[in-house]
Amino acid sequence: MSNHHCAVVGGPSRIADLAWAVTAIESLYGRALLRTHCPLRPADTLLIGEFLDRVTPRSVGAGVAVGSG
User: Fold this and answer.
1) Is residue 25 part of a domain?
2) What is the sign, positive or negative, of the torsion defined by CA atoms of 53, 58, 61, 67?
3) Does the pLDDT value for residue 61 go beyond 60?
4) Are the beta carbons of 9 and 24 closer than 8 angstroms?
5) Does residue 22 lie in a domain region?
6) Which pLDDT tens digit goes with each residue over 6-56?
7) Residue 24 burial class via C-beta count within 10 angstroms: exposed 0-12, middle 13-18, buried 19 and up
8) Contact of 12 with 25, CB cutoff 8 Å
9) Is residue 51 part of a domain?
10) Average pLDDT of the residues of the chain
11) 12 part of a folded domain
């Protein structure tokens, strides 16, 4: 099966909001990288870090536990 026929991969392409579509696609890429058994390249590590910085609430970095709200 080709990737574009897979609902998980093709789903983000149907998201109308561009910001959400980009986030969904980047998260799929990051998930695929983390599931491999190969060492991550520095560029991939940087990409995952930048993605997590964007999607992680700032309060988590300040020592507030997730879900403690």
Assistant:
1) yes
2) negative
3) no
4) no
5) yes
6) 777 777 878 888 888 888 888 888 888 888 888 888 988 888 888 888 877
7) middle
8) yes
9) yes
10) 76
11) yes
Which pLDDT does position 18 carry in this prediction? 87
**Both tokens assigned to 32:** 């695929």
- pLDDT for res 69: 46
Per-residue model confidence (pLDDT) at position 30: 83
Count of the separate structural domains present in the chain: 1
> Structure tokens of 20?
């959400």
Residue 37 identity (one-letter amino acid):
H
Question: What is the span of the domain harbouring residue 44?
Answer: 3-55
Please name the residue that has the structure tokens 């590590």.
45
pLDDT for 67 equals 52
Token digits of residue 40:
């991550």
